[in-house]
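Category: protein sequence paired with discrete backbone structure
Discipline: computational structural biology
Format: plain text, a pair of labelled lines
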Amino acid sequence: MVNCISLFCAAFLSFAALILACVACAGSTKNYYPINNIFEAQLDLSKLDVTKVLPELPQSLSSFDTLGLPSYVNVGLWSYCVADSAKKVTSCTSPSGIQQFDLQQVIKDNIDNNQVAQLISSLAQIALPEKLQDNMTYYNNLVKCSFITLLIGIIASGLNIIANLLRWVLHFAFVTWVSRFLSVIAFLGLIVSAGTSTGTYVYIKNALQSNYDTYGVKMSLGLNFYAVLWASVAAALLNLIFLSAVKSRRYSYMRPIEEKPLV
């Protein structure tokens, strides 16, 4: 009975971890609710100081309205969405591999004014905090790590469900240990992904906040994304705990029958 309860709980939790991780991975890939409201971080460009960010533009073009930039940019794992001043998402980019955090490229790609776009010949003309630009390679390596480990966690969770179902039929120690091994991989993949993503964007958020008075760009974390991702971590951990309680096979103790001496 204990085995059945543990296996059922483990299967349910592994399935929950898989679904939650997939939802986090799919965030901001399409402009459909609630996917378009799941993102790692949101860039607020509504107070962008054009004269500091684009110092080479003529004075007549140095206004936020002239650029045609979106007020908000929601950064996902492998795509991003743009939103208006009411934070309503208007469009999302197509998934294109691992999404790198490149604020200069985001600004350049979203300038709708053709006259302004023609004047910006290179990313070097877009000025942003040196602290942010100098460590861009380091940030993006962490973003890649977060994306790859999340995929590992998703794959391991899916395989763990299969192993769990096999364990219902095959009462072998090998099947039990394979299931436990996959649950460990799933948990480690998900917690590394959640940890690196959270740490990276908290650091970028603080870097932008310290320069907000100069550039007018700030960032906030996507609470929906991290709630879903950390919930998948919790489900994977509980799955591992329940699998640890599963026994490989049933054991029974046979008490020898004592022979009564003949009188």
Observations:
- The radius of gyration is 26 Å.
- The longest helix spans residues 173-210.
- The chain has one domain: 2-244.
- The first strand starts at residue 41 and ends at 44.
